[in-house]
Amino acid sequence: MVETKRTQPLARDAMAYVLAGGRGSRLKELTDRRAKPAVYFGGKTRIIDFALSNALNSGIRRLGVATQYKAHSLIRHLQRGWNFLRPERNESFDILPASQRVSETQWYEGTADAVYQNIDIIESYGPEFMVILAGDHIYKMDYELMLRQHVDANADVTVGCLEVPRVEATGFGVMHVDKKDNIIAFVEKPADPPGIPDKPDFALASMGIYVFRTKFLMELLRQDAADPNSSRDFGKDIIPAIVKGGKAVAHRFAKSCVRSTQEALPYWRDVGTVDAYWEANIDLTDITPELDLYDSDWPIWTYAELKPPAKFVHDEDGRRGEAISSLVSGDCIISGASLRRSLIFTGARINSYSKLEEVVMLPDCTVGRNSRLSRVVLDHGVRIPEGLVVGEDPELDAKRFRVSEKGICLITQPMIDRLEA
C-alpha cells in the first residue's frame, strides 16, 4: 500500500521516549547523588533538558522519561520543570522509574527493557512513531526531519549518526552503510571502523537516537523479551537484528542539527568525563561559542527558579566585583572578587579578594575571602574556606581533591570537610 503524502508534521503522531537511567560513573563524584542526565550544565539547565527541549521544539507533545539509578534529583527536576504539558491538549509527560511493572524483582535490564516494561503506557497513547533518545548528551536537533527520512525511506529503524573521524570512532557503535545510507552492518567499538562511501576518512557513529513505527517496535520488544539469550539492549540486540533481517537506515546529524547564525558547525557533546564536562561548560564563555544558548528560535526549556538578579559589589583596587568572559546566573553576589572565563550557577556567594579563573561552579556554592581557584569544578553547595588555593600545586591538589587526566580539580563538600577535620 502506498502511503499518501502527509501535510501535518509527523511529530504530531510521535512519542519521544528518553532513556535517562545511566549511572554516569566517569563523572566521578558529580554522579554520587544524581544520575548523569540530572547533572547541571550551562548555568541554568540540566543535561536532560536538551533531549526534552529538542523533542518539544520539534513538535512532539508526548514525552516519557525512563529513570533508574539515583533518580530523585532527576525526578524532582522533571516534576518542577516539565509539568506544563496538558492531557486535555493531547499532551503527556510520564516519568517512568523502574517500578517492577513486568516482574516484581527486576530493574530495567537494558535500554530495550526500559521501553518494554512500559509498553502498556505507550500503547494507551497510540503514537504512530517512537523516537528513542539518550538523555545524556548536549545538542540541538529537529527530530521532525529524522521522522520524515524514516517515512520516506520506508525504514524499519532509522538511527541518528554522527560523522566522526575514523581514528576517533573506535569507542562508538559504528554503522557500515552503502551509498544510500542503508545500514549494512552495525559494529560495536570496532578496531578498524568502516568508512563512509562519500567520506572514507570518516565513520558514522551511533548517537543512541532511534526512530521506529510503534507497532513494529512493540512486536520486536515482545520477541526480544521472550529470548533468554538477549541482553535487552537496543545497540547490542535490537538494531543488529533489524540490520540482519529488515531495513535500517542511517540519519546524519548534520541534516537535522539546529544551528543559529552564530553556530558554524554541528554541535554534539558527550560530557561524560570530568574533563569533557569542564571543557563544554567553559567553552560557553567564548565570545562566539560553538553552542549558542541565546538562540530564541530553539529555546532550551528547564525549571526556571524565581531568583533575584546577579549582583556585583565593591570598587577598590584588589577588591572589585567583576566578571570577565564569564556567565553568572541569578541570585549570585560577587562581592569584591574577580572572575575570569568562569561559569557560575545560581546562588553563588563569592567573597572579597578571591580570584577565580576557568571555574565551573554548581548552584549554592560559597567562596571565602582570599581564595584562588583555577581550572576547578565545584559540586553543588560546596563552601570554600578562606584562603584556599587550588590549581597552582598539582601534587597538593591530587592529595586533597579529585584531579582529572587533564588536571581539572573536582571538589565536593566531603572533600572540604576532610580538610577541615
From TrEMBL:
Involved in the biosynthesis of ADP-glucose, a building block required for the elongation reactions to produce glycogen. Catalyzes the reaction between ATP and alpha-D-glucose 1-phosphate (G1P) to produce pyrophosphate and ADP-Glc. The gene is glgC. It catalyses: alpha-D-glucose 1-phosphate + ATP + H(+) = ADP-alpha-D-glucose + diphosphate. Keywords: ATP-binding, Carbohydrate metabolism, Glycogen biosynthesis, Glycogen metabolism, Nucleotide-binding, Nucleotidyltransferase, Transferase. Belongs to the bacterial/plant glucose-1-phosphate adenylyltransferase family. HAMAP family: GlgC (MF_00624). It is an enzyme of class 2 (transferase). It holds the Pfam family NTP_transferase. The lineage of its organism: Bacteria, Pseudomonadati, Pseudomonadota, Alphaproteobacteria, Hyphomicrobiales. Pathway: Glycan biosynthesis; glycogen biosynthesis. It comes from Aquamicrobium soli. Homotetramer. Alpha-D-glucose 1-phosphate binds at residues 108, 173, 188-189, 206. This is Glucose-1-phosphate adenylyltransferase. Residues 17-285 form the Nucleotidyl transferase domain. One of its GO terms (molecular function) is glucose-1-phosphate adenylyltransferase activity. The record marks 68, 107 as: Could play a key role in the communication between the regulatory and the substrate sites.
